Structure prediction request, 184 residues.
Amino acid sequence: MNPTHLVILDREGVISECVVPFMRSPEEFKPIPGALEAIARLNQAGARVVVATNQAGVGRGLTDMATVNAIHDRMHRAVMSVGGRIDAIFYCPHAEEAGCRCRKPATGMFEEIAERYGLHDLSGVAAVGDSIRDLLAARKAGATPILVRTGKGRDTESAGGLPQGAQVFDDLAAFTDDWLARQV
Prediction:
């Protein structure tokens, strides 16, 4: 697989609106305007789109895997309704204090993605997020960190300290416009 045809997205703040403290039901999944269509456009250009998301509510006992799966099912159906698809969802169900290797900013999910898609490294892969955790995980895993200003993105940008090579876009649609322009 050509690594430039794999795009890794965070869920909340990139695809869906952020819910504080976390999404507790499928009904709370509210797509960010233009995000679903952006995923469809990436797919139509030959990109595989995967999601890498921290789901600490499971580890804290505040939600369960059935609810997380129902939210992901709603997300899949929403993306399919505009002609797109999410190829896979990778998630960390652990609470922050668990010290696991998969919770962003650790790179475990990114390593699993690389292994699943037969990539030796993630150079050339765009990893889109709205938090410093997303960007640090991407950079440490060798992917290109992309910040969107949706979700917590504006606050993340204002705080500074973005990793070297981070690119910033208003939203997933703007990133997709840029990504498509570079594919020609």
